[in-house]
């Protein structure tokens, strides 16, 4: 709460009020403070709190100080809250009610509701950062000519009004969008319920449902993005779509793999494939699920998972263990190498270079020297000289 | 008995036929929604957030597959999957400097820079959702909350609770010392050193041995000055 400053609560020129809500309590992190009952105002530039009983008591924090915000749903006897995480106060901050605070966040409790709409508006303002493009009165130059000053003031009010109208129009569109969204979600919820009831029936009739029907059901779940309620397995594993995708990938990746020494990490593949597609991109899960089927479909590529969890696609003809022999030669020539050095020499990504060296170590060909200077690999002389 | 089995299959068939029909109906609703509001999804981070909240509430993952209705009809998939590609590229480009750790703010800044002046806005929530999806690719994507912000990890380095706690401690000033760890966390020197050594080895921390009082361990991820030196 040391990020707040005292303020008159009057909006500056160029600052617009977005929304206000009565009945809000302000807390310093987890601790209650004397700001128990106030009106919370959101403008394009600041978050302002004014005491309902004593209007002189008014504090504000610039929106630029906000790192991120979270919602806390209401509970029994507890109001819904918004948690506002803040940057440390800047050194030239105007004086406020607190010099220091042990918390980097404040909590806004909506005792008279209104949290949902306020959260929505606050998210929007934080995202749009309108304060950056709308300099406030303080930043504007003082014009000595009072006539021009008056005209400019009127001009600004005119612009503000236009902006306000435009915002109202956008607001209307957004409200409609939200309403339509709610209705859509109601229907989506029905689909989820239906899929659950079917899944239960399938469970009961275990053995009486054909393979074909299971595949159909999985593809329906995939369409809706519903996790399989029976097996809880990853979305859409083993569907027609992924089988087709696997075959496509085998075609697309043959040449890139050959160019890269027969092996690519899954993140590289993800980027390559999606950049090439441009539209109708694959989800990471689509890619993984398709790659899991490569081997069983007897395609010329396979998925391999290293001990570290790193996943790669290899040509069937690629033999990582053989590459290890070549790696050993390279390391021996240079005496020792780090993953970075090896990667540069051989022309591989550091990620895969490291995996190859680790594999070589696992196979006993290399030894490691793990110091603060980095991880360095040496030929395993214990093995060769014993 | 054969008759009972038959009936079982017929029931399942009926149910699936019903679901198939309802799916088509739902798809129509989704198309109607898309024709009015598809732009809103791409344009407004705040609308996306609301959309994601509601999907999560009813148990639907709109980003599970590019083949799902949400991606195909509403186009919500492309936004996040492309963002995923951009995130991977930024992290790869900066890895040699920060060891594979970057603050969410810096990531957002770099991604927006790469997207260009006229691209749609990308919120912190958008990035976090895209990152959570990237985890499944196995290259070590993860999210570590530290103090006022969030660190994004993009390398398969093992970071235990101990490492995370030290990162959180370092977040305030961008660096940490063995004494600070001992005082704040009440650890033995050995434990503190092990954690710091690991971070050094991974390239996530740099050592300033010339610091006045005692060596300081700086985290390049927590500095924006360094990133300005392109």
TrEMBL record, chain A:
<dbReference type="InterPro" id="IPR021648">
    <property type="entry name" value="GLUE_dom"/>
</dbReference>
<keyword id="KW-0175">Coiled coil</keyword>
<dbReference type="GO" id="GO:0043130">
    <property type="term" value="F:ubiquitin binding"/>
</dbReference>
<dbReference type="GO" id="GO:0000814">
    <property type="term" value="C:ESCRT II complex"/>
</dbReference>
<keyword id="KW-0813">Transport</keyword>
<keyword id="KW-0967">Endosome</keyword>
<dbReference type="GO" id="GO:0032266">
    <property type="term" value="F:phosphatidylinositol-3-phosphate binding"/>
</dbReference>
<keyword id="KW-0653">Protein transport</keyword>
<dbReference type="InterPro" id="IPR011993">
    <property type="entry name" value="PH-like_dom_sf"/>
</dbReference>
<dbReference type="Pfam" id="PF04157">
    <property type="entry name" value="EAP30"/>
</dbReference>
<dbReference type="InterPro" id="IPR036390">
    <property type="entry name" value="WH_DNA-bd_sf"/>
</dbReference>
<comment type="similarity">
    <text>Belongs to the VPS36 family.</text>
</comment>
<dbReference type="GO" id="GO:0031902">
    <property type="term" value="C:late endosome membrane"/>
</dbReference>
<comment type="subunit">
    <text>Component of the endosomal sorting complex required for transport II (ESCRT-II).</text>
</comment>
<dbReference type="InterPro" id="IPR037855">
    <property type="entry name" value="Vps36"/>
</dbReference>
<dbReference type="InterPro" id="IPR040608">
    <property type="entry name" value="Snf8/Vps36"/>
</dbReference>
<protein>
    <recommendedName>
        <fullName>Vacuolar protein-sorting-associated protein 36</fullName>
    </recommendedName>
</protein>
<dbReference type="GO" id="GO:0043328">
    <property type="term" value="P:protein transport to vacuole involved in ubiquitin-dependent protein catabolic process via the multivesicular body sorting pathway"/>
</dbReference>
<feature type="domain" description="GLUE N-terminal">
    <location>
        <begin position="1"/>
        <end position="138"/>
    </location>
</feature>
<keyword id="KW-0963">Cytoplasm</keyword>
<comment type="function">
    <text>Component of the ESCRT-II complex (endosomal sorting complex required for transport II), which is required for multivesicular body (MVB) formation and sorting of endosomal cargo proteins into MVBs.</text>
</comment>
<feature type="coiled-coil region">
    <location>
        <begin position="160"/>
        <end position="187"/>
    </location>
</feature>
UniProtKB/TrEMBL annotation, chain B:
<comment type="similarity">
    <text>Belongs to the SNF8 family.</text>
</comment>
<dbReference type="Pfam" id="PF04157">
    <property type="entry name" value="EAP30"/>
</dbReference>
<keyword id="KW-0813">Transport</keyword>
<dbReference type="GO" id="GO:0043328">
    <property type="term" value="P:protein transport to vacuole involved in ubiquitin-dependent protein catabolic process via the multivesicular body sorting pathway"/>
</dbReference>
<dbReference type="InterPro" id="IPR036390">
    <property type="entry name" value="WH_DNA-bd_sf"/>
</dbReference>
<keyword id="KW-0653">Protein transport</keyword>
<protein>
    <recommendedName>
        <fullName>Vacuolar-sorting protein SNF8</fullName>
    </recommendedName>
</protein>
<dbReference type="InterPro" id="IPR036388">
    <property type="entry name" value="WH-like_DNA-bd_sf"/>
</dbReference>
<dbReference type="GO" id="GO:0000814">
    <property type="term" value="C:ESCRT II complex"/>
</dbReference>
<keyword id="KW-0963">Cytoplasm</keyword>
<keyword id="KW-0175">Coiled coil</keyword>
<dbReference type="InterPro" id="IPR040608">
    <property type="entry name" value="Snf8/Vps36"/>
</dbReference>
<dbReference type="InterPro" id="IPR016689">
    <property type="entry name" value="ESCRT-2_cplx_Snf8"/>
</dbReference>
């Amino acid at each position: 709460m040391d990020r707040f400053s005292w303020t008159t609560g009057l909006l500056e020129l160029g600052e617009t009020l977005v929304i206000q809500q009565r009945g809000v309590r302000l807390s310093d992190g987890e601790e209650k403070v004397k700001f128990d009952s106030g009106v919370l105002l959101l403008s394009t530039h600041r978050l302002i709190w004014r005491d309902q009983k004593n209007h002189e008591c008014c504090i504000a924090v610039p929106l630029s100080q906000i790192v991120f915000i979270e919602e806390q749903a209401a509970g029994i006897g507890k109001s819904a809250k918004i948690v506002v995480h803040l940057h440390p106060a800047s050194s030239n901050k105007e004086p406020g009610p607190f010099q220091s605070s042990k918390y980097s966040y404040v909590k806004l409790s909506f005792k008279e509701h209104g949290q949902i709409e306020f959260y929505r508006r606050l998210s929007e303002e934080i995202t749009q950062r309108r304060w950056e493009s709308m300099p406030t009165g303080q930043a504007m130059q003082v014009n000595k000519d009072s006539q021009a000053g008056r005209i400019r003031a009127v001009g600004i009010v005119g612009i503000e009004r236009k902006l306000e109208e435009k915002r109202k129009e956008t607001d209307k569109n957004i409200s409609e969008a939200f309403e339509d969204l709610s209705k859509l979600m109601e229907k989506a919820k029905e689909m989820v319920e239906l899929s659950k009831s079917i899944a239960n029936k399938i469970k009961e009739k275990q053995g009486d449902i054909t393979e074909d029907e299971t595949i159909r059901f999985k593809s329906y779940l995939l369409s809706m993005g519903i996790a399989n309620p029976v097996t809880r397995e990853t979305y859409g594993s083993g569907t027609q779509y992924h089988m087709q995708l696997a075959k496509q990938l085998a075609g697309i990746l043959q040449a890139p793999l050959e160019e890269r020494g027969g092996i690519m990490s899954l993140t590289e593949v993800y980027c390559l494939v999606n950049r090439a597609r441009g539209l109708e991109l694959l989800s990471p899960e689509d890619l993984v699920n398709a790659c899991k089927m490569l081997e069983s479909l007897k395609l010329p590529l396979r998925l391999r998972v290293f001990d570290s969890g790193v996943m790669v696609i290899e040509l069937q003809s690629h033999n990582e263990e053989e590459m290890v022999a070549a790696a050993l030669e390279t390391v021996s020539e240079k005496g020792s190498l780090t993953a970075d050095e090896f990667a540069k020499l051989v022309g591989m990504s550091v990620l895969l270079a490291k995996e190859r060296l680790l594999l070589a170590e696992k196979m006993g060909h290399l030894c490691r020297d793990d110091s603060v200077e980095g991880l360095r690999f040496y030929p395993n002389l214990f093995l060769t000289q014993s | 008995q054969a008759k009972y089995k038959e009936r079982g299959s017929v029931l399942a068939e009926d149910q699936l036929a019903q679901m198939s029909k309802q799916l088509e109906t739902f798809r129509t609703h989704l198309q109607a929604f898309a024709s009015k509001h598809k732009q809103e999804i791409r344009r407004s981070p705040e609308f996306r957030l609301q959309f994601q909240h509601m999907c999560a509430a009813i148990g639907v993952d709109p980003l599970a597959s590019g083949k799902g209705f949400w991606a195909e009809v509403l186009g919500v998939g492309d936004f996040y999957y492309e963002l995923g590609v951009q995130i991977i590229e930024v992290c790869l480009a900066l890895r040699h400097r920060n060891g594979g750790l970057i603050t969410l703010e810096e990531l957002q800044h770099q991604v927006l820079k790469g997207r260009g002046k006229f691209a749609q806005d990308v919120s912190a929530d958008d990035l976090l959702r895209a990152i959570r999806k990237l985890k499944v690719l196995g290259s070590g994507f993860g999210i570590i909350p530290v103090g006022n912000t969030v660190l994004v990890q993009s390398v398969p380095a093992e970071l235990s609770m101990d490492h995370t706690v030290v990162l959180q401690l370092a977040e305030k000033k961008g660096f940490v010392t063995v004494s600070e760890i001992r005082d704040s966390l009440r650890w033995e020197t050995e434990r503190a050193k092990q954690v710091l050594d690991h971070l050094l080895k991974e390239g996530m921390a740099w050592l300033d041995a010339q610091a006045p009082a005692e060596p300081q361990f700086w985290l390049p991820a927590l500095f924006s000055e360094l990133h300005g030196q392109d």
